C-alpha cells in the first residue's frame, strides 16, 4: 500500500476536513455509524434470546449470566485502552482491527459448539468492541470540522435511539423465525455480512488519523484501569445473582483505592514523558468534565429503565418478546427524530437549555408512564404505552446527541481517542451502577415467594417504584447540566496549524 498526502482545510476549532467536494468523509461516517449500531444492538439482542440459548445449548444459569456479563465486562475494561491505542497507532487501523475481530468473534459465537465456547467468544467479542467503538467518535472528531459536527452528532443520536430498541426487536424476530433451524444462532451470524462489508469499505473510505506527536502506550496505566474497572463492575454485574456477598463490597471499595493510585500515577506519567493512558488535562476542560458527570448519571437512569421495562412487559404483563419489542418502536422513532432536530436546529439557537429541556421532558414521560401503569394495571395495552414512550423518547433524543457534541467540543484533536474511550467507559459504568440499583429499587419491592397470581401485580408495582427513581435521576441530570457551557465551544486552545493537520492526516489507498 502507498501513502499520499492530501490537502485539508483548517477550521475554527483546529479540526480538519477534506475538501468541500470530497464525499469520502460521508462514506466513512456511514461505515463507522454502522459499526456503532452493531455494538448497540449486540448489547441488547442476547437478552431476548436467552431462553432459546438455555434450551438449545443446554447452558447453565451461571453460563447464561456470563454470556451477557462477559461481553459487558470485557467491553468496559478495554474502552480507555482502545481509545488511546487509536491515538497512538491510528484510528483507522484500530477500527479495522476491531471490526474484523468483532466479526470473527460473532462467527465463533454463532457456531459455538457448547456453552463454554459461547462464553469465551462473547468475552472476545466485547474486547474487540472495545477497540472498535472508541474510534467511532474519534474518527468523527478528527474528520469533520466544527460547523459540520452538529449534523453528524445528530445522526449519531439517531443511531443511538434506533439501536436502543432494535436489539430486542431484532433478537425476537430472528429467534422466532428460527432461520434454517439455527434457533438463536442468527442473532450473532447476522453480524458477518455487515462486518465484512464495513471492513472492506472502511479500508477504502476512512482516512487515517492519529495524535500529531508520538505517544507510547502506558502499560501500567492499562493494568490499573483494567483492574479497577473489573473490581468495580464485576460485583455490580453479578452481585444480585450471587446474593451480594461481602467480598463484592470489598472489591468495590478496593476499586476506589486502585483508581486513586491510577490518578496519582497518571499525573507523574504526564510530567515524565507526556504519554499517560488517561489525559487528566481533559478534566480541566469545563465542557468535558461536566459532560462526563452528566453521562455517568444518565447511564445510571438508562441502566435501570431498560432492564425493568423489559421485565415489566415480559414477566409482569406476560407479553411475548416480539410484542415487547414492537411496543418500543414509538420510543425509537421519537429518540431518532428528536436527536436530529436537537443538534441541527435547536442547540445552535438555545444552547444548553435544549439538554435541560430534554431532562425535564424525559422525566415528565417517566411520570406519565407511572400514572398509566397505575391506572390500567395488568390490562394496559401497547398503544396506551405509546404516549409516555414518545415523550420519553423526545426527551432522550434532546440529550444524547448534543451531550456527545458538548463533551467533545473543547477537546484537542490529539486526545480525541482518549476522550472517546472515557465517554464510553463512564457510560458503561453508569449502566452497571444502574443494573446494580435494579436489585434494590425493583427486586427489593418483590417478595421472594409469589404465587402465579401475585407475579403480575408485584412486577407492576415494582416497575412503578423503579420509574420513580428514574424520574429522580432526570432531576439530578437537569441540575448537573447547569455546569455545561451555555453554548457549544467553537474553538480549541492550542489548535493545530494547517501544516500539522496535513502531517496528521494521511490518506491510505
UniProtKB/TrEMBL annotation:
Annotated localization: Cell membrane
Matching SUPFAM superfamilies: MFS general substrate transporter (SSF103473)
Domain Major facilitator superfamily (MFS) profile, chain residue ranges per copy: 28-489
Membrane topology, as annotated: Multi-pass membrane protein
Pfam families on file: MFS_1
Keywords of this entry: Antibiotic resistance, Cell membrane, Membrane, Transmembrane, Transmembrane helix, Transport
Xref: InterPro entries: EmrB-like, MFS, MFS_dom, MFS_trans_sf
Main location: membrane
Membrane spanning stretches: 26-50, 62-82, 94-113, 119-140, 152-174, 186-202, 214-234, 246-266, 287-312, 324-342, 354-371, 383-408, 429-446, 466-484
CDD domains: MFS_MMR_MDR_like (cd17321)
Origin superkingdom: Bacteria
Presence of keyword Mitochondrion: no
Designated name of the protein: MFS transporter
Organism encoding this protein: Streptomyces yaanensis
Amino acid at each position: 500500500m502507498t501513502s499520499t498526502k492530501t490537502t485539508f482545510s483548517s477550521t475554527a476549532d483546529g479540526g480538519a476536513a477534506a475538501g468541500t467536494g470530497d464525499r469520502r468523509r460521508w462514506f466513512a461516517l456511514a461505515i463507522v455509524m454502522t459499526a456503532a449500531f452493531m455494538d448497540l444492538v449486540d448489547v441488547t439482542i442476547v437478552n431476548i434470546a436467552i431462553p432459546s440459548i438455555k434450551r438449545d445449548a443446554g447452558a447453565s444459569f451461571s453460563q447464561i449470566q456470563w454470556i451477557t456479563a462477559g461481553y459487558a465486562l470485557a467491553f468496559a475494561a478495554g474502552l480507555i485502552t482502545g481509545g488511546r491505542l487509536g491515538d497512538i497507532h491510528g484510528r483507522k487501523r484500530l477500527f479495522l482491527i476491531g471490526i474484523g475481530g468483532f466479526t470473527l468473534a460473532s462467527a465463533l459465537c454463532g457456531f459455538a459448539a457448547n456453552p463454554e465456547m459461547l462464553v469465551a467468544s462473547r468475552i472476545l467479542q466485547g474486547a474487540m468492541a472495545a477497540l472498535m467503538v472508541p474510534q467511532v467518535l474519534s474518527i468523527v472528531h478528527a474528520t469533520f470540522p466544527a460547523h459540520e459536527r452538529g449534523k453528524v452528532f445528530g445522526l449519531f443520536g439517531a443511531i443511538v435511539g434506533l439501536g436502543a430498541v432494535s436489539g430486542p426487536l431484532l433478537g425476537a424476530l430472528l429467534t422466532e423465525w428460527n432461520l434454517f433451524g439455527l434457533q438463536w444462532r442468527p442473532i450473532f451470524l447476522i453480524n458477518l455480512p455487515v462486518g465484512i462489508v464495513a471492513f472492506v469499505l472502511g479500508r477504502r473510505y476512512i482516512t487515517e488519523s492519529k495524535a500529531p506527536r508520538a505517544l507510547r502506550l502506558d502499560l501500567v496505566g492499562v493494568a490499573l484501569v483494567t483492574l479497577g474497572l473489573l473490581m468495580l463492575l464485576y460485583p455490580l454485574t453479578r452481585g444480585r445473582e450471587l446474593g451480594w456477598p461481602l467480598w463484592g463490597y470489598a472489591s468495590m471499595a478496593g476499586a476506589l483505592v486502585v483508581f486513586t493510585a491510577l490518578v496519582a500515577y497518571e499525573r507523574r506519567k504526564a510530567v515524565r514523558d507526556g504519554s499517560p493512558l488517561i489525559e487528566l488535562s481533559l478534566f480541566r476542560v469545563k465542557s468535558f468534565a461536566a459532560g462526563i458527570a452528566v453521562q455517568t448519571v444518565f447511564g445510571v437512569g438508562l441502566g435501570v429503565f431498560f432492564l425493568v421495562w423489559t421485565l415489566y412487559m415480559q414477566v409482569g404483563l406476560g407479553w411475548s418478546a416480539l410484542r415487547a419489542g414492537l411496543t418500543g418502536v414509538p420510543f425509537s422513532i421519537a429518540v431518532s427524530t428528536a436527536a436530529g432536530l436537537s443538534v441541527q436546529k435547536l442547540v445552535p439557537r438555545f444552547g444548553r437549555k435544549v439538554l435541560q429541556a430534554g431532562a425535564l421532558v424525559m422525566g415528565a414521560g417517566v411520570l406519565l408512564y407511572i400514572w398509566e401503569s397505575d391506572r390500567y394495571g395488568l390490562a394496559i395495552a401497547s398503544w396506551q404505552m405509546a404516549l409516555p414512550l414518545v415523550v420519553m423518547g423526545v426527551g432522550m433524543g434532546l440529550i444524547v446527541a448534543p451531550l456527545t457534541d458538548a463533551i467533545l467540543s473543547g477537546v484537542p484533536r490529539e486526545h480525541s481517542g482518549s476522550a472517546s474511550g472515557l465517554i464510553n467507559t463512564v457510560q458503561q459504568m453508569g449502566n452497571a451502577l444502574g443494573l446494580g440499583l435494579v436489585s434494590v429499587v425493583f427486586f427489593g419491592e418483590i417478595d421472594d415467594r409469589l404465587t402465579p397470581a401475585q407475579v403480575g401485580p408485584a412486577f407492576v408495582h415494582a416497575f412503578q417504584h423503579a420509574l420513580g427513581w428514574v424520574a429522580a435521576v432526570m432531576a439530578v441530570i437537569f441540575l448537573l447540566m447547569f455546569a455545561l457551557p451555555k453554548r457549544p465551544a467553537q474553538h480549541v486552545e492550542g489548535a493545530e496549524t494547517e501544516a500539522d493537520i496535513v502531517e496528521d492526516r494521511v490518506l491510505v489507498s
